[in-house]
Amino acid sequence: MNEFDVFLGFHRPQLESAGVPQHLWLSLMQKLKNEVVDAGNSFGIMQLEDDAGNLTGWSVIVTTENGVDIYDSQQIYLIDHAWTYTFQEAKGYLQQVPGLLERMATLMELDVEGSTREELMDGVLHEMWKFNQTYQLGNIEASAEEKLPVWYILDEFGSRVQHSHDPSFRMVPFFYIPTQMSFTLLWPIKSLEQGDEVTRDYVENVHDELLRKIRLLPWEPADLTDISANQTEPEEAFFTSSRRNETLPDHERLEPIPTIGGGNKLKVFANYIYVKDYLKDSRFEIVENQEEADILWLNNHFKDYKTFSEDSPRKFINQFPYESVITIKDFLAIVCRRDQLEGELGIGVVSMDTLPRWLPTTYNLTTELPQFVSYFQQRESNKNTYNK
Length: 388
Description:
Blueprint (H helix, E strand, L loop, with lengths): L2 H16 L6 H10 L8 E7 L5 E8 L14 E3 L1 E5 L4 H7 L3 H8 L9 H11 L4 E6 L10 E7 L7 E2 L5 E8 L4 E8 L8 E4 L8 H7 L20 H5 L25 E5 L2 H6 L5 E3 L8 E3 L7 H7 L4 E2 L6 H4 L1 H9 L31 H10 L10
Parallel strand pairs: 7-10, 11-12, 11-13, 13-14
Antiparallel strand pairs: 1-2, 2-10, 3-9, 4-6, 5-6, 8-9
């Protein structure tokens, strides 16, 4: 097997899902292998100013005399990630990694010279959402709740590529397995001449006009207060889509609870480390095999209670059917909203209080993003604080 075949063996799924044209694959392999970051040979960054000499923005343009040919097999480029982190790590990295805070502040055009470190920290944490990109870590079978989002900010070149509804390039994250490194790939989707601008679609996978407008708000402000912020009960399909249906146990098959005492111990299988570390009661025994356990303490969502009751009628499990209505946050919010008096639907015009009053204002940003943005904008005069 040659080198290129090995590369495809590892990376073909990524290449195909990202839509990287096949004629670029060989060049990409060579650049990844040798860590060739050569976008500067073909493109340049321009600082834009108004008539008074004030900075108004940035532009990346084609600088090569022959321009960019969409069919040229060399026209794929690696862009470095200047900062990669999970949300919980962001502030710690800025405090501990030498030079990172200053680099991010400069990239985001904050006043480095005239600000304290605390002011720079606050500024970067506020402005970074205009620069953030994201991908998720987790195996293909993991649920949305189990996948870990990773955030990253492109280097000074990548961060200057501007948005366009009619972009000239695409940019997608790519994980190179041999070195365990992530890059962003840049390649043309139309041929350009020298001096033409390199642009990309910041929300390329969003096609609904309203949702595109909303997702572009950090860069293109718009007034969306005319949209109703009221929430409605979702259709049944919301509760069943992308979720495997659960089964109920066969109660007739269940057997009496095992007796504790007289030297008998309940055997516990757990894939949750804290149960293993802290279950010290002498009435229980940790085992490593599910088959010999009396109690299963699992940290993944369990669904097939019918088969479980038939195959293991004397076993216990740390979950119950349809518990997702309270353990999954979007379901929980819907269930809580049902606790309203008839006729009390809607949001207070002056107070902007949502109902029931005991429930903190909660929106599902996948299904209720327009309502959330409208609500947020209507409350701009108040301090908006939301928890993920």
